[in-house]
Amino acid sequence: MNGFSTQAENVADNGGLKASYRAYKKLVKKKGTSKLLPGLNLTQDQLFFLGYAQSWCSKLTKERAVLQVDSRPHSPGRFRF
Q: Where does the Peptidase M13 C-terminal domain start and stop, copy by copy (predicted)?
């Protein structure tokens, strides 16, 4: 993918992450932190960002990737592999 052509979407994704993190911190301030996961040496903040990162982890076939890009409202029209 060309980073220049996806720049607006990248900025929007970053803005969404920022809004989500602020909402998470507001919830923690109101309700307190939850228990840490056993066996993981990670803070609650680290777990938040790990969850976000995992949402981007996937393995797609070429056919599925084309279908996914073609069905997006802001699709560039062509997908190059």
A: 1-80
Task: For residue 38, give Cα distances in angstroms to 31, 42, 49.
Answer: 21, 10, 18
Q: Where are the domains of the chain?
A: 7-70
Residue 23 CA to its chain's centroid (Å): 15
> pLDDT digits over 40-52, tens only?
999 999 999 999 9
Specify the pTM. 0.64
Q: In whole angstroms, what is the distance from residue 77 CA to residue 66 CA?
A: 10
Report d(CA 52, CA 18) in Å as an integer. Answer: 11
In angstroms, the CA 52 to CA 66 distance is 23
Q: For residue 75, what are the contacts with CB-CB under 8 A and spacing of at least 6? A: 69
Integer Cα distance of 3 and 71 in angstroms: 20
